């Protein structure tokens, strides 16, 4: 595993968690501490490898009853490390499917209680962001496929890194969401984070371009009393009342709706940009840990 997880003597880089987009503030450390694994293997009576199919019921009860923040921090690191290690060494596709659908089966609240307060430069913190990215992508496939086309009108290196065509549909977005998260468990963890970062970078670009387009349209709407100089005849000037009739409220509502859309796009883009930074940082820390692995023994 990577160095921002197993090397206590390597200080982690702290990034602003409050603006990460998908995460919350925390005081968690970057090293793994000894704790009972938070994921219980499903016993089938056979000799097949243990499966991290669900959260340990006793852990769920403890969380519901309220644990000390330090205990939750300890469990979050241990459970994330145990799950990643078990799945990475498994060849059973059922195991992978159960892990990537963890939030779907266990509920986001339970997983959030365990991982969401971890810093983005820790394993539980970055896994939490990957899970939220998958959920967001699958929930908003139509919008995201449109934003991808806006942000990536022609294929670039981002398309190659993510593995997405230049005109993805909703199903493509869902498959990509699963592929990125599954890759974190079955392939190179740093590569999975780089795919997540490249994907969010494109969506951020699409959101910002869309916001600029809406802003231009908003600026073109004549304000009350202003003349519209783009009328068909150069000798005829139309005011907003001429364009929209006497129903000025319709014009105002339209403008307000556009302003809300612009604000939402800009805000989400800013949050996603910080999340992309977290993914880039995680990939760098993971690779740095691999190169320093000998010093962690």
From TrEMBL:
Compositional bias annotation for Basic and acidic residues: 220-231
Residue ranges, annotated region (Disordered): 15-58, 220-262
Compositionally biased spans, kind Polar residues: 44-57, 252-262
Name by which UniProt lists this protein: Thymidine phosphorylase
Organism the protein comes from: Bifidobacterium bombi DSM 19703
């Amino acid at each position: 595993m990577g160095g921002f997880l197993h090397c206590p003597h390597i200080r982690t880089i702290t990034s602003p968690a409050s603006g990460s987009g998908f995460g919350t503030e925390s005081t968690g450390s970057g090293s793994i501490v000894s704790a009972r694994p938070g994921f219980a293997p499903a016993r089938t009576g056979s000799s097949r490898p243990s499966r991290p199919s669900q959260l340990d019921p006793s852990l769920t009860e403890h969380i519901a009853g309220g644990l000390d923040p330090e205990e939750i921090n300890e469990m979050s690191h241990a459970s994330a490390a145990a799950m990643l290690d078990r799945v990475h060494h498994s060849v059973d596709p059922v195991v992978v499917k159960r892990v990537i659908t963890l939030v779907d089966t266990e509920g986001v609240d339970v997983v959030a209680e365990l991982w969401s307060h971890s810093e983005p430069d820790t394993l539980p913190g970055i896994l939490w962001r990957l899970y939220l990215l998958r959920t967001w992508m699958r929930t908003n496939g139509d919008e995201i496929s449109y934003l991808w086309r806006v942000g990536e009108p022609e294929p670039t290196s981002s398309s190659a890194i993510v593995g997405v065509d230049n005109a993805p549909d909703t199903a493509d977005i869902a498959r990509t969401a699963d592929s990125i998260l599954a890759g974190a468990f079955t392939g190179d963890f740093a590569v999975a984070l780089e795919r997540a970062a490249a994907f969010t970078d494109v969506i951020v670009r699409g959101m910002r371009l869309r916001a600029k387009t809406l802003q231009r349209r908003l600026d073109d709407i004549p304000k009350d009393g202003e003349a519209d100089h783009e009328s068909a005849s150069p000798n005829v000037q139309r005011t907003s009342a001429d364009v929209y009739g006497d129903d000025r409220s319709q014009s105002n509502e339209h403008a307000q709706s556009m302003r809300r859309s612009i604000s939402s796009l800009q805000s989400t883009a800013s949050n996603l940009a910080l999340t992309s930074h977290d993914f880039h940082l995680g990939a760098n820390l993971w690779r740095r840990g691999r190169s320093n692995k000998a010093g962690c023994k």
